[in-house]
Structure formats: structure tokens, C-alpha cells
Write a structure and sequence with these properties.
The structure is a single chain. Helix content is about 20%, strand content about 40%. The protein has 8 helices and 21 strands. Strands 1, 2, 3, 4, 7, 10, 11, 12, 13, 14 and 15 form an 11-stranded mixed β-sheet that branches. Strands 17-21-20-19-16-18 form a 6-stranded mixed β-sheet. The chain has a two-stranded antiparallel sheet with strand order 5-6.
């Protein structure tokens, strides 16, 4: 049985993130599985899959920066802000390349963004897309999001392709809607690919079909990555003492030698999120007070 690990999956188009991981779960009889960062059915690309106790680490992956390439078609706004929805509005105004270059300068750094109505955002405990299906009128409050970089990669008469690096909770469909409005037109996403999530990237991902063709049992799946290898920008300490491991399993605090901390980044670290590992697996997350580690999550 898998204790924990990650699969760097490449999700194809026309399948939801839930159905993708459900296929993996059934194929390999995995009891506990989850994914970090939902991809729309019409989107493709990197979908980090957590196995076993690595599901407890999903919040640490979803907060990582993401890179997408996408294409906006100008002149039409749809009910879903992508090509799946019904056409709501039309415009004959098609922006020029120079106009687009000018406006994307407004989309940088911290921004307030309203998620699409067809999304998994919760409104009073219910998913927005479910309320929309029930024809219930509702409003979605804007959320604070972050864009590190946004650039144009290709431009044709009525469509433009972009590359973006953004933070957690960012909706590319909302960007298409908002950018179009600033250009005095309408627009929607016609293609969307996620190339990177933290250390998960397209180049090292495995196609869903290739994964499902594997005949090995789950503990022999050769594309599973250790948790410690997929978490960057962290403070980590490798445990070798069995007594410390036993104490942790009971939720007890342990003493560690802070000189042996592995720094995976030169940036300032948060001492409230220290990871303890054992043979490549994360066994606990907790706080460091002096040389005393106090566990907040146990993954043994």
C-alpha cells in the first residue's frame, strides 16, 4: 500500500479533474487520492495528484505559482467565459495588437478578481455552478489574486495567445472577460493549458492514458514522486532516530538539531511550517520553537 506520494499527471481535454483521479483510483485500487488545483474539463495540462497521506499536503501545493498558456477569441462573450457556454453578447470591435499590449499592463501584481459564475466557488455553502444550474440569482464577491507575469505569445485577427504566471485562486476565464471589457469588446477562452504548478511541470508529466495502461500494482507505479522532492521553498529536517519517529506518531514534541535543517530556498522561511521527513516521505508538519519541534499535522 502507498503511504504517500505524488503523480505529475497531464490531464487531457474533455474530462473533469474529478473524473481523471477517479479513473486512477479505480485502476490501481487506491484508497486515498486527491488533486491540487482543479482544471476545467475544456482545459488540459499539469494536475498534481496526491496519494495516501500526501493528500494532507495539498494546501502547500495549491498555493504555489502556476504557469498557463491560453488563447482568447475576441468579439463574443459566453455564459461560461469559455467555448463551452452559450453566446451572451457580441461585438464587432476587435482590438489591435497595440491596444492589447497597452491594456495587459493593467494586469500585474495584486488585483481584485470576480470568479466566473460557472465555478466551484462556494456561495453560502453551495457551489456557484450548482446555483447557476438551478437558475438562482447570486453574486460572487471579488477576491484578491496575483499576476507575476503576463505576455502575448501570438496574435491573429480575432484571437490572441498569452503566457501567464499567477498565484493561487486565479481564474483565466475571468481574465479573458475583464481584459475584453477594458478593450471595449467581449471575449472568451478557446484554449487553456497549465504548464506548471510549483515543481510539477509539463516536461516531466505523464499522460493519463499512459498511466492507465500500466499493469503494475499501485506500489510498483514507477512515476510516483516522493513528497519531499515535490515541495520547494521549505524548511525540512530528516529524521533518522526511531524513538523520535515513535514520539511523533503519538503527537509528542521532539528536539531537533537546527543545524541540520535543509533549506530549499534562500528566501525567508516561516518557522510555523517546518517539515519533518523520513526516507523521503513527510511525516509531520509543525512549529519550531528554539530546538523544539511541536507537530500540528501527523502523516505517519
Amino acid at each position: 500500500m502507498i503511504n504517500q506520494g505524488w503523480i505529475n499527471l497531464y490531464k487531457p481535454k474533455n474530462i473533469s479533474s474529478f473524473h481523471a483521479i477517479n479513473k486512477i483510483k479505480k485502476k490501481f485500487s487506491i484508497n486515498k487520492i486527491g488533486h491540487a488545483g482543479t482544471l476545467d474539463p475544456l482545459a488540459e495540462g499539469v494536475l498534481p495528484i496526491a496519494l495516501g497521506k500526501a493528500t494532507k499536503l495539498i494546501p502547500f501545493i495549491t498555493k504555489k505559482s502556476k504557469i498557463y498558456n491560453f488563447t482568447i477569441k475576441w468579439g463574443l462573450q459566453t455564459s461560461t467565459d469559455d467555448s463551452e457556454g452559450e453566446i451572451l453578447f457580441k461585438s464587432e470591435n476587435i482590438p489591435s495588437l497595440e491596444e492589447i499590449k497597452n491594456k495587459i499592463k493593467n494586469f500585474h501584481g495584486q488585483l481584485m478578481q470576480v470568479p466566473p459564475k460557472i465555478s466551484a466557488v462556494k456561495i453560502n455553502g453551495q457551489r456557484a455552478y450548482k446555483l447557476d444550474r438551478q437558475k438562482i440569482d447570486f453574486e460572487i464577491k471579488p477576491k484578491n489574486v496575483f499576476i507575476k507575469n503576463l505576455s502575448i505569445t501570438n496574435h491573429k485577427i480575432n484571437k490572441t495567445s498569452f503566457l501567464i504566471e499567477c498565484g493561487k485562486g486565479f481564474y483565466i476565464r475571468s481574465l479573458a472577460r475583464d481584459l475584453s471589457h477594458q478593450l471595449n469588446t467581449f471575449g472568451h477562452i478557446i484554449s487553456l493549458e497549465r504548464e506548471k504548478v510549483g515543481k510539477f511541470n509539463k516536461e516531466t508529466s505523464i499522460l493519463l492514458d499512459d498511466l492507465l495502461k500500466m499493469v503494475q500494482r499501485q506500489f510498483e507505479i514507477n512515476c510516483i514522486r516522493s513528497s519531499i522532492s515535490m515541495l520547494d521553498d521549505i524548511l525540512a529536517f530528516e529524521i533518522t532516530d526511531q524513538n523520535s519517529l515513535k514520539d511523533l506518531s503519538f503527537g509528542r514534541s521532539i528536539k531537533i538539531n537546527i543545524d541540520n535543517l535543509k533549506e530549499f530556498s534562500s528566501s525567508t522561511q516561516d518557522k510555523d511550517s517546518l517539515f519533518l521527513s523520513y526516507k523521503g516521505d513527510i511525516v509531520s508538519i509543525g512549529k519550531l520553537i528554539g530546538n523544539l519541534f511541536k507537530p500540528t499535522k501527523i502523516l505517519i
